[in-house]
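Sorry to interrupt, but I need a hand with the structure work. Can you supply me with one protein entry, sequence and fold together? No commentary is needed, just the two lines. Leave the record below and I will have a look.
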Amino acid sequence: MGFFSKIFDGLKKTKEAVGKRLFEVFKAKDLDEEFYDGLLEAMIFSDMGVAASEEIVGELKTEVYHKKITDTESAKNLLKRIIIKKVDYDVPPYRYPLLIMIAGVNGVGKTTAIGKLAKNFKDLGKSVVIAAADTYRAAASEQLEIWAERAGVKIVMHGEGADPAAVVFDAIASAKAKKTDVVLVDTAGRLQNKKNLMEELKKINRVIEREYSHADIRNYIVLDATTGQNALSQAAIFDEAIDIDGIILTKLDGTAKGGVVVAIACEKEMPVVYVGVGEKITDLLPFDAESFVDGII
């Protein structure tokens, strides 16, 4: 399956749910208030969020007026361009050595995302090491080890309950010694309380900045697309602790609410960098704004 086919297929549920509503909206004869109300409702239904949907519809109204647009087809094309502009962030290209610290609550598909990301880099011809720094969840390292094996990459792991920062320290030392291109750091998704978890993430961050300051360092959060608006609050909490640079959105193929990408980009001002569109190891794709918008409208 080609890149675009995978995106389209992954957004099938969203397109089916939103597409029907949009089809009815764009059957309108006039671009009147009823048209804009219907459009707003369809966008909110797809989990684009109230604030983002109102902002986009407001911009559409203004441009339709200034450009003297009267037909729905032109309005639809204009809507696409407005949404693309909202979700298409200018993410700097990777520089190597690269370290990506990956955060997120348990159950969002973090381990799977790391395995797939490792495979992505391996397929680009990069050497990869995974730091299994979620030492609190039983069997977390073992699950990650299976994914590392599938992806054909190295893994650094300590015993259950070990200091996560020590795992990261060892992984960085190994990467330096072997001139490894990419270090992927798994982190805990849950500790005794939220404060403990955030302090642990900050501690890992300090080790990374101290030991690997010459590397390109990125902090990504994994969010589950099926949780909709709840994903936004998770992004905000983690961003406070470690300054999130980008989002890996998993299970996009499992929801009719894929519009949450727009809500994240507009309300949280964070780029979506990868999307999970299936179960296969190759089903984590770099986010492409135009393909995404074509896939839902």
